[in-house]
């Protein structure tokens, strides 16, 4: 009877001390950490951030010492069950209060599925903060507290922590499960990947703290949740193919500018490849799963064969990953789509400007991202540069080769004398043709400054020497006083006008001629 009363008294004292953290939130937990011999290894990592450290309920060293003595006394007296029950209930309540402080409450799966994406996006961000706080602060703190109070009973300590962690983790995984079932769309990929990475980071905290049985169970549960999120991410990323295929335009982009689809796809790939390590892991696991179900594979041997035949392929497909192959597939589809869109332009020259603009934009985006370039490879970049240069040559052939015959010497001389009538026609035809080209192509758009400069330099190098030579040789044969009537432009004027090409300004000629 005396023992029962003593244990009842200790039980109430134990409960009171455990609740002390809620009643005295400002108590100095840091002092406990510095003086305790059970410091957990993550506490000295100063780079964890506010949400991952400093949030664990505080106990003074004195209170922890008292609870340790009470726990030892109750367990030694055969009151282990009562001691553990008080501890479990109190710590679970305290943990729930911490979750509420982080504004996280259990959400019904149906409610998650009904949420607008903007709302769900906010809930995901809050969930990520909670998981990081649990893995970075609350779980290590709980482990440290348990080890301090039950220092003589490590098995009891691990069992108590495991029960608490299991309940919390299952609640967190329920939310992740609901997210994986949400309606999929391209803009959701990055949040899905954030969820995946957050779950991956939770595993070490579980492995470090739980009993072997609980660790195995929870690790399996987390891995299963990761797999479901991963499958959703693969599905979303692969759906980029359908987005490209379904983008069928009926009218061309004005001025041959970079198409919005090109910007969208390349920016999407850039942001996606910032998660390259995660995506490599997800796609590799997906590929292994699909190889066991070949009839449903999204990355089948046929895909690899098509990739091998691609004009923008790597040197060796076999050495590349499923994710790399998927990215190359997307790039090839984009090329095919842009080729089809280029045919909407009636002017062949503008068609090549369009292909050049988009090709250069794609190349610059790949080169500008370490991760995307890593996926595509240097061989692809060199081949893409060759393709863009060929577009440049084709443009020059379509546009400027038709003006050069005006500057030909053939047919100007009859019986050793210059035919002035033919000469005058040549000058007029040149001026008219050049005006037409300039009027048209000054409205075209080349937004990449380097490409714009390269085009102007190449045009100048073709036209100016030929025109200067022609004017210098035949200007003298025109009637004195009527030279300006036929020689509309000096070579310097042509150079100035060429500088007005591709700036998207239809009035550039008028401005330059009047200046």
UniProtKB/TrEMBL annotation:
It comes from the Eukaryota. Gene3D superfamilies: Exocyst complex component Exo70. Keywords: Exocytosis, Protein transport, Transport. The keyword Transport applies. One of its GO terms (biological process) is protein transport. Residues 125-499 form the Exocyst complex subunit Exo70 C-terminal domain. Component of the exocyst complex. Belongs to the EXO70 family. This is Exocyst subunit Exo70 family protein.
């Amino acid at each position: 009877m005396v023992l029962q009363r003593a244990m009842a008294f200790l039980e109430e004292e134990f409960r009171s001390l455990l609740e002390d953290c809620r009643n005295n939130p400002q108590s100095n937990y840091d002092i406990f950490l510095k003086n305790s011999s059970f410091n957990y290894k993550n506490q000295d990592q100063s780079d964890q951030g506010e949400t991952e450290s400093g949030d664990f309920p505080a106990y003074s060293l004195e209170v922890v010492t008292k609870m340790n003595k009470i726990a030892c006394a109750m367990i030694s007296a055969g009151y282990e069950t009562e001691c553990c029950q008080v501890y479990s209930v109190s710590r679970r309540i305290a943990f729930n209060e911490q979750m509420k402080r982080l504004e996280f409450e259990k959400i019904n799966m149906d409610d998650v599925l009904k949420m607008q994406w903007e709302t769900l996006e906010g809930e995901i961000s809050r969930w990520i903060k909670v998981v990081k706080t649990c893995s970075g602060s609350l779980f290590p703190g709980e482990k440290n507290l348990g080890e301090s109070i039950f220092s003589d009973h490590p098995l009891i300590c691990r069992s108590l922590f495991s029960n608490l962690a299991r309940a919390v983790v299952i609640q967190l995984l329920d939310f992740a499960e609901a997210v994986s079932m949400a309606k999929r769309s391209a803009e959701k990929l990055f949040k899905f990947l954030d969820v995946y990475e957050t779950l991956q980071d939770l595993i070490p905290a579980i492995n470090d703290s739980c009993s072997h049985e609980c660790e195995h169970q929870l690790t399996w549960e987390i891995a299963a949740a990761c797999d479901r999120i991963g499958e959703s991410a693969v599905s979303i990323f692969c759906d980029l193919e359908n987005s490209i295929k379904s983008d069928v335009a009926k009218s061309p982009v004005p001025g041959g500018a970079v198409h919005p689809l090109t910007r969208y796809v390349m920016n999407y790939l850039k942001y996606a490849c910032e998660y390259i390590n995660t995506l490599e892991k997800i796609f590799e696991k997906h590929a292994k799963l699909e190889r066991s179900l070949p009839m449903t594979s999204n990355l089948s041997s046929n895909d690899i064969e098509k990739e091998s035949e691609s004009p923008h392929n790597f040197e060796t497909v076999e050495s590349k990953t499923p994710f790399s192959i998927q990215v190359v597939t997307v790039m090839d589809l984009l090329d095919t789509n842009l080729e089809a869109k280029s045919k909407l332009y009636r002017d062949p020259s503008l068609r090549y400007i369009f292909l050049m603009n988009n090709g250069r934009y794609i190349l610059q985006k790949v080169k500008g991202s370490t991760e995307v370039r890593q996926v595509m490879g240097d061989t692809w970049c060199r081949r893409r540069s060759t393709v863009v240069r060929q577009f440049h040559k084709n443009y020059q052939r379509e546009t400027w080769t038709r003006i050069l015959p005006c500057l030909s010497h053939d047919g100007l001389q009859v019986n050793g004398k210059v035919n002035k009538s033919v000469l005058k026609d040549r000058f007029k035809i040149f001026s008219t043709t050049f005006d037409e080209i300039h009027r048209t192509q000054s409205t075209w758009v080349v937004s990449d400054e380097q490409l714009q400069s390269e085009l102007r330099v190449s045009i100048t190098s073709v036209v100016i020497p030929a025109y200067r030579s022609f004017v210098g040789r035949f200007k003298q044969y025109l009637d004195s006083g009527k030279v300006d009537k036929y020689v509309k432009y000096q070579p310097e004027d042509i150079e100035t006008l060429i500088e007005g090409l591709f700036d998207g300004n239809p009035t550039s000629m008028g401005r330059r001629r009047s200046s």
